[in-house]
Structures are given as C-alpha cells and as structure tokens.
Amino acid sequence: MKKLAISLFIAGLILIIAFTGQDYNGMLLIFIALLIVFFNRAGKKARRIVSAVLAVCLVYFIAVEVPIVRSSAGDKEQSADYLIVLGAAIYGETPSLAMVERCDAAIDYLKSSPDCKAIVSGGQGNDEVISEAEIMRRLLVKGGISEDRILVEDKSFSTYENIHNSSSLFTGPDAVLAVCTSEYHLYRAKLIGSDMGLELIGVPAKTTHISVRCNYFIREAFGVTYQWLFT
After folding, report:
1. Is the pLDDT of residue 126 over 80?
2. With bands split at pLDDT 50, 70 and 90, how would you rate the model's confidence at 156?
3. pLDDT-derived band of residue 107, with 50, 70 and 90 as boundaries?
4. Roughly what angle, to the nearest 10 degrees, separates helices 23-41 and 2-18?
5. Is pLDDT at 120 greater than 90 in this prediction?
6. Which residues make beta-bridge pairs with 219?
7. Strand 200-205 to strand 177-182: parallel, antiparallel, or no bridges (unpaired)?
8. What is the rounded distance in angstroms from the CA atom of residue 143 to the CA atom of residue 95?
9. d(CA 156, CA 192)
10. Of 42, 14, 38, nearest to 27 (Cα)?
C-alpha cells in the first residue's frame, strides 16, 4: 500500500506540473494517496470519523454533479436571436483547444440558425497579446460566418462578466439568447445568466480529451458550489 500511495502521489504531481488541464485529476490522485497513508496509520475511531466525513462529501459531490452532467447535453434544438460564445485561453495568437471546440460548436449552431447573431466574449489577459474575442471572431469568419453577424465583447475576464457585458449588446426585450461553452461549463453559465434574469439556451462544445473533460467536471463542482453560496 505504501508503494501505491507513493506512486499515486508522484503521478498526481506530474499531472499538475507537466500537463495542462489535469490539475484537478492530479489533486485527486494526491488526495487518494494521502488517504491511503492515513487509513494505514490512524486508529479505528479516527478512521470512522474520516469515513463518515468522506461519505457526506461524496454524496454532496454527486448531488452537485447531477445538474452539471444533465446540462452538459445542451437544450433541445431551439433558434436564438443571439449566441454568446464564451472565451477560453489563448497562447500568443494561437487559440487553445477549448476555444477551438467552442467556436466549432458555435459555427455549427450559427449555420443551422441563419438569423442568429454571435457575440464573442473574452478580454485580453496580462499574458495575452490579443483579446480572446478577436481570436474567436477570426475563427468564426474562417468557419464561414459572415462578419456582419458577429458582435465583439472584449472587456470581460470571468463568466459573470462575459454574460453581463454581452447582454448590453443585444437589442429587443424579447430577444432569445443562447450561450455556447464547453459542456462541463454549461450549467454554471446558465445559472449565472439566471441570476441576471436571463434564460439562456445551452449550446455545448464537446471536450475532445476524456481526461481533460473529467478534470473540468470535477472543477465545476467547486465553481457551482461557490455560485450557490456567494451569489
């Protein structure tokens, strides 16, 4: 068991340090390694207490993940007036895979809804040479979406700001809105919109790599918990 704990601990560190989008997977492995060490050394009473706490945490985690997973499938095909496309990381002027995935999903949706306009939303971080919104605009144009269908919101640095700032760009009190983001992020994006009084249609972008998808589904449990508690 000691060798297993050491192996899990090292594997967790490698995931966190050497791989992008694997930090929560890595922390989970490290946590399991520490639990193995604890249960091998702790007394019976301490093990019972920790087991009870872990059981409660597991039940809560599952309860949080249920709506996250349900929302990840998106909503039934509906035509929106505006599609808010949420930004993701860029490297120089190179979009991350997550951004490409979101733009690909947005392109598919916009082609199936020719009257819908896109709002690409994302600011320019300190380590970025151009705004996320501008990169997404280019990807949409490259994907065949006319420039006159694309609105640019390039001042936001969080999901809340993405949706709040984008909401000032559409016209008409009865406008139907949709949001396009990674499938694991859809529930929280729609929850934030709901807090603003906006009912958003969910358009999911599929995360290519399963391990990255799992990592961010784990992370979303913490993001949603924060949203529930502090907003």
Report:
1. no
2. very high
3. very high
4. 160
5. yes
6. none
7. parallel
8. 14
9. 14
10. 14
Give all strands (DSSP E) within 16-107, no chain letters: 82-86, 90-91, 94-95
Backbone angles phi and psi of 117, in degrees to 5: -105, 155
Alpha-carbon span 220 to 231, nearest angstrom = 16
The answer to whether residues 183 and 206 touch, using CB atoms and an 8 Å cutoff, is yes
Asked if 173 and 198 count as a contact pair (C-beta separation under 8 A), the reply is: no
Can you tell me the distance from the alpha carbon of 65 to that of 220, in angstroms, rounded to the nearest whole number?
8
Tokens 């392109």, located at residue:
107
Split at pLDDT 50, 70, 90, the class of 192 is very high
| Residues pairing with 202 in the sheet | 179
Q: Find all residues with CB under 8 Å of 111, minimum gap 6, and list them.
A: 144, 145
For residue 96 the two structure tokens come to 């991350």
Whether residue 46 is predicted with pLDDT greater than 80 in this model: the reply is yes
**Per-residue confidence (pLDDT) for residue 127, from 0 to 100:** 75
Residues 225 and 205: their CA atoms lie apart, in Å, by: 22
79: confidence class by pLDDT, cuts 50, 70, 90: confident
Instruction: Read off φ and ψ for residue 120, nearest 5 degrees.
Output: -85, 125
Query: Is a pLDDT exceeding 90 seen at residue 223?
Result: yes
Phi-psi group of 175: left, alpha or beta (phi > 0 → left; psi -120 to 50 → alpha; rest → beta):
beta
